[in-house]
Amino acid sequence: MKAIQARVSGQVQGVAFRWHTQERAQQLGVTGWVRNEVDGTVLVHAEGEDDAVDALVEWCRHGPPSARVRDVAAREAAVTGSSRFEVTG
């Protein structure tokens, strides 16, 4: 079990990035949350099996077709024990 926090930058707001991230996380069995930040980035907290979390981070590197991801800065985070993946903010 691992947890990460990833900040996704580029054209990632207003392109359904959060909704698609939630959909992909649920497919992978990853829990956590995704939210828009005031600086135009999207922040993702993901936790679950190592391979599943890594797959979600890799998916974030391109995102949905309408997104233009410039960078994904991921770092380890504390596991919170969340039971589902939510869109917040």
TrEMBL record:
Q: Identify which top EC class this enzyme belongs to.
A: hydrolase
Which residues are annotated as active site?
A: R18, N36
GO MF, one example: acylphosphatase activity
Residues covered by the Acylphosphatase-like domain: 3-89
Q: State if Hydrolase is listed as a keyword.
A: yes
Which family does the similarity line name?
Belongs to the acylphosphatase family.
- Any idea what this protein is called? Acylphosphatase
